[in-house]
Inverse folding.
């Protein structure tokens, strides 16, 4: 019997359908789905069926010092006992085993974990594929290869390093702040530098002092009207702007006119980061975009969505893919591409594991849900756009002389849509100017003097943040969106653009003061590079893990020495995150508190002299946002719960009043 092991049940089912031409039969072994056909059996795992942890003796936070975890034994713990039992039972009768998990670090490690459990004495091989389509799967199974144990070792090193760093630092910070139980403070190798990045931007915004400036614009008229701005974009002194204004007349002369053609090249193929950015721009969070893309991949609609590659390999039959869309809802676009030579754009990153994200088969709109169709359409259109001609713009630049003061106006008109016809996202706005000629005299019908202020750098949006993480070497294509999601789940950030809470600021301030290495990207980037070296066979897994432990030990030398100072700083900072606003009765601080029975409420710090209080939901994490209710002056609240989208509670006083009204009805 030939046993095939995939990463998920859904993958096992689809591969079985493809290889058996739909004839595979589903059976249950120990409650686990198995697909049988032609002497083959396929079982799908549930991702990692083994996890790593410390022995139970390290579980008691009160008896084990956090730094002891650095050199603690790491054990493997079975997490899916039914799947493991079924896998072992199948392996006993197997004469040949094929690992068919996803082809990346995690997939390779998942396959190796399975082999460790069954300890096969029979031949083992590996199949790799970038799409779950009939042609891709049949080709992969016709040319199996060997397991890449070094790639798996890189994934295992990441697991071990993240466990030790996360557990030791999280335990130290949580104990120092006395934030235990469900409210523990999470610290991580990737998430902490990411959080520090957000806190730094937030502090820049808070510290920013707006500087006033003035702009002068004129409305010019011949057969049409258009607006031109003074060549000096900003006047920092109002007196200078007003003096300039006083010199202007009712007529202006076009002193310079230049027309040119702008060639706008098509976009490069989608890698994971660029896909997430594009999906974010049309309303999908990174985590949601990747979840949907994973589903589309498993069902054979798109290629593997975790890739750094931005260059289509020569082995990819791009012409056949485009031809397959001729009779689809994208037929008009596919037919147009096939009339010309298919020469795609190339990005800067070329990898050999997976091609850029592209459509793998043709889907109909009614076969997918609305969100799935939007993501699928985005991927199809991006793929088409990479083969399309450039967009051509006519650009006009005009300079108008008004009594010696120069004003500029720019026009842009799209004359050939090119790739923008295929990919109509983020369209550049056209700016129309009337027909003009050099030396022409124009009427100045209106003069505007506008006072404005400089603005701070904007907060990061989720999609842009993923790109910044890539540039800084924080995480991998597979983990960046997960690290960001974890910050939301921990109540460290909220909203999009992303805004850190006071808890996040307190944690980052403390780490920056006493263990700055933890919040700098350099160390994390170095470890990521070392894990790549493991995959390439340049260094051993054990050497990288031991080096990371040395780094962490040096961090703990400082943490243990400054323990009391760290504790005081954390407690002070975290106290501020409990303040909701001023008490309407006495003016003291309203704080998030707990009753003796453990129920949460908002109470006055002036208690027992003041008894003002407001109720709070029984469950979910509470985030005190920076938005303030105009009526009551209280900070609005958000409630976050694991596995659920955060919901706005709003002003707790307004909420309470509405609740009281509903009780009377």
């Amino acid at each position: 019997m030939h046993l095939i092991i995939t990463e998920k049940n859904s993958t096992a089912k689809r591969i079985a359908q493809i290889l058996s031409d739909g004839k595979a039969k589903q059976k249950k072994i120990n409650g686990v789905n198995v697909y049988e056909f032609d002497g083959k059996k396929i079982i799908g795992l549930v991702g990692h069926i083994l996890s790593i942890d410390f022995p139970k003796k390290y579980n008691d936070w009160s008896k084990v010092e956090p730094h002891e975890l650095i050199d603690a034994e790491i054990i493997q713990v079975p997490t899916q006992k039914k799947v493991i039992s079924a896998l072992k039972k199948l392996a006993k009768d197997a004469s040949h085993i094929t690992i068919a998990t996803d082809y990346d670090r995690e997939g390779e490690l998942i396959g190796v974990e399975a082999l460790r459990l069954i300890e096969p004495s029979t031949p083992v091989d590996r199949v790799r594929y970038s799409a779950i389509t009939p042609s891709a799967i049949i080709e992969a199974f016709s040319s199996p290869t060997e397991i890449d144990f070094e790639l798996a070792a890189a994934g295992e090193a990441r697991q071990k390093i993240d466990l030790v760093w996360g557990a030791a630092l999280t335990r130290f910070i949580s104990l120092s702040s006395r934030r235990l139980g469900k409210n523990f403070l999470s610290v991580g190798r990737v998430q902490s530098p990411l959080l520090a990045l957000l806190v730094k931007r937030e502090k820049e915004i808070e510290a920013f002092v707006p500087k006033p400036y003035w702009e002068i614009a004129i409305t010019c008229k011949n057969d049409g009207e258009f607006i031109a701005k003074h060549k000096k974009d900003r006047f920092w002194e109002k007196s200078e702007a007003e003096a300039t204004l006083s010199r202007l007349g009712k007529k202006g002369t076009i002193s310079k006119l230049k027309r040119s053609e702008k060639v706008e090249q098509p976009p490069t193929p989608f890698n994971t980061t660029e896909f997430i950015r594009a999906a974010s721009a049309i309303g999908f969070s990174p985590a949601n975009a990747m979840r949907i893309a994973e589903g589309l991949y498993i069902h054979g609609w798109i290629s593997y969505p975790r890739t750094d590659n931005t260059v289509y390999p020569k082995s990819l039959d791009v012409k056949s893919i485009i031809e397959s869309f001729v009779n689809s809802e994208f037929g008009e676009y596919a037919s147009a591409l096939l009339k010309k030579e298919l020469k795609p754009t190339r990005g800067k990153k070329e990898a050999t594991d997976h091609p850029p994200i592209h459509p793998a088969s043709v889907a109909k709109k009614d076969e997918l849900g609305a969100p799935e169709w939007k993501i699928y359409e985005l991927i199809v259109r991006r793929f088409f756009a990479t083969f399309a001609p450039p967009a051509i713009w006519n650009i006009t630049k005009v300079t108008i002389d008004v009594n010696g003061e120069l004003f500029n106006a720019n026009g842009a008109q799209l004359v050939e849509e090119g790739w923008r016809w295929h990919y109509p996202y983020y369209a550049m706005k056209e700016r129309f100017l009337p027909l003009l000629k050099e030396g022409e005299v124009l009427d100045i019908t209106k003069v505007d003097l506008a006072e404005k202020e400089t603005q701070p750098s904007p907060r990061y949006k989720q999609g842009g943040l993923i790109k910044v993480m890539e540039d800084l070497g924080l995480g991998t294509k597979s983990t960046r969106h997960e690290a960001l999601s974890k910050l939301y789940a921990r109540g460290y950030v909220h909203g999009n653009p992303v805004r850190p809470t006071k808890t996040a600021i307190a944690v980052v301030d403390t780490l920056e003061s006493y263990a700055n290495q933890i919040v700098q990207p350099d160390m994390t980037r170095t470890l990521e590079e070392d894990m790549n070296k493991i995959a390439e066979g340049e260094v051993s897994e054990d050497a990288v893990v031991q080096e990371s432990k040395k780094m962490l030990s040096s961090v703990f030398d400082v943490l243990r020495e400054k323990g009391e100072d760290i504790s005081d700083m954390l407690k002070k900072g975290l106290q501020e995150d409990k303040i909701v606003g001023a008490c309407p009765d006495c003016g003291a601080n309203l704080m998030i508190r707990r009753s003796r029975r453990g129920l949460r409420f908002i109470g006055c710090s002036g208690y027992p002299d003041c008894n003002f209080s407001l109720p709070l939901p029984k469950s979910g994490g509470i985030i005190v946002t920076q938005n303030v209710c105009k009526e009551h002056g209280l900070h609005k609240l958000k409630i976050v719960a694991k596995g659920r989208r955060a919901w706005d509670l709003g002003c707790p006083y307004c909420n309470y009043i509405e609740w009281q009204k509903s009780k009377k009805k």
